[in-house]
Structures are given as structure tokens and as C-alpha cells.
Design a protein that fits this description.
The chain is of the alpha/beta class and about 240 residues long. The chain has 9 helices and 5 strands, in the order αβααβαβααβαβαα. It has a 5-stranded parallel β-sheet, sandwiched between helices. The longest helix is centred in the first third of the chain and has 34 residues. About 35% of the residues are buried.
Length: about 240
């Protein structure tokens, strides 16, 4: 009888010690968790964005410095907005290029088809060189499709910029015939973009202040100045930010 009582007492003591030990371990574990909470805050992953700009003298920035042309200013503005990310810029453009010249140049240029943003500004030399308008009607859509291909096949990464009006420069002298021609080209481009859900940014009205504000015209009396390009970027930037987001 006494032997059974002793056995029961031993079991009770062992159980008590075990519970006490488990309680202590649990308490220590909770204390460590409180002292070293799990950090589940998402970390920022810097990205590298690649920009491709296609065009003519208005894209290469004839008569302004290399960092003054609108694609460079756009890249710098985006770098300020996305300050944890990096940007690179590829330009395929040359003064005097028509839509045909640009198409040929792209065909002979190694491009990666992996750009986060593509801009296209082309057509003034078709008008200036009196090329048949039907040529623009054919080649502009082809260039837009090329731009989409380069933008990872995503049309919402493409921005078409309207053609500046060089009539409002000392060279153009306010020639209304020039303005009418530019309007025809821009109307076609804008209509095409609207029909195909592609971003079209109008900057032509900015250049039409060139005679009343000479600071909008470069030193050659024909092309946009650094100031004009800055105003272009003010128009383009919100769309570029939206597309990169």
C-alpha cells in the first residue's frame, strides 16, 4: 500500500517538473520573439529602365547640347522621379530623316526589343521634302508597329510625339502653308494613335509660340531650343511615369 503511494508521488513530482520546464521554454521562446520580431517589411528592388527614342532632328536635338535634347531631358526627369532606379537611353535619329530613312536605319541597327519606354517623333522631313503624303500614311503605322515590337510588344509603352511647326521660326517666317502641312501630318498620326489606343502627346502648340518667344528657337533659327524641349518633357513626363508604373 505504502509502496503504491510512493510511486504515485514520484509520478506527480516528475509531471510537475516537466510542466515547469515546458512553461519556461515557452516563456523564453516568446520573449525571444518579442525581442527579435520577424521583419516582413517588403524591400525595394531597384530597377533598370531602358528608353528608346526614334526620330529625326527633333529627337537627336539639332543645334542644342547632347544633354539638352528632349530624350535626355526625359531620362533625367524620370531619374529624379524614380530616384532608386537607373535609366539608359538609346537614340536612333538623324537630322533630315524621313519615315523611309528611319525605317532603313532601324533595320540596320541592333536593337534589343526589350525597352520599357519607346518614343517616336517623325514626319517633318516628309513634309519639308514634299514626299507624297501616302508614303507617310503607309510608313508611319509601320514605324509605330516597330516601336511596339521594341517595347516588348506592349503598345502601352509607346509614346508618339506630334511634329513641331517650324513655320514659327525665323526660317519658317510664319508661312501658313507649312503649318497646314504639319497639321495634316499630325491629324493623321493622332487619329491613328487614337484608333489603336496608343499614347499621342501634342507639343506642336508649344513650337507655335516661337516667333513671339525667340527663346523657344535654337541658335540655328529653325529647331527647338533647350527651353522648348523642356516644355516638351513637361507634357510627355506624366505619360511616361504612368507607363513605367
Amino acid at each position: 500500500m505504502k509502496k503504491n503511494i510512493y510511486l504515485k508521488l514520484i509520478v506527480i513530482v516528475l509531471l510537475t517538473i516537466g510542466c515547469s520546464s515546458n512553461s519556461s521554454s515557452l516563456s523564453n521562446s516568446m520573449s525571444q520573439t518579442q525581442d527579435n520580431p520577424i521583419d516582413d517589411t517588403p524591400t525595394d528592388n531597384p530597377q533598370h529602365f531602358k528608353i528608346l527614342s526614334l526620330g529625326d532632328s527633333y529627337t537627336i536635338g539639332q543645334s542644342v547640347c547632347e544633354t539638352c535634347r528632349f530624350p535626355e531631358q526625359l531620362k533625367d526627369s524620370l531619374s529624379t522621379v524614380f530616384n532608386n532606379d537607373t535609366f539608359s537611353l538609346k537614340i536612333v535619329a538623324q537630322t533630315g530623316w524621313t519615315t523611309t530613312n528611319l525605317k532603313n536605319a532601324i533595320a540596320n541597327t541592333v536593337l534589343i526589343e526589350d525597352y520599357e519606354l519607346v518614343t517616336l517623333l517623325i514626319g517633318v522631313n516628309n513634309q519639308f521634302q514634299s514626299r507624297p503624303f501616302s508614303l507617310y500614311e503607309t510608313e508611319f503605322p509601320e514605324l509605330v508597329n516597330i516601336a511596339i515590337t521594341q517595347a516588348k510588344g506592349e503598345k502601352n509603352r509607346v509614346i508618339v510625339v506630334s511634329i513641331p511647326d517650324y513655320a514659327y521660326t525665323p526660317f519658317g517666317g510664319g508661312n501658313t502653308y507649312i503649318s497646314q502641312g504639319i497639321d495634316t501630318y499630325n491629324a493623321f498620326a493622332e487619329s491613328y494613335c487614337a484608333s489603336n489606343d496608343i499614347t499621342f502627346v501634342n507639343i506642336t502648340d508649344i513650337t507655335r509660340q516661337g516667333l513671339e518667344d525667340p527663346e523657344l528657337v535654337a541658335s540655328d533659327g529653325l529647331h527647338p531650343s533647350t527651353k522648348a524641349y523642356s516644355k516638351f518633357v513637361e507634357r510627355i513626363l506624366p505619360f511616361a511615369i504612368e507607363q513605367l508604373n
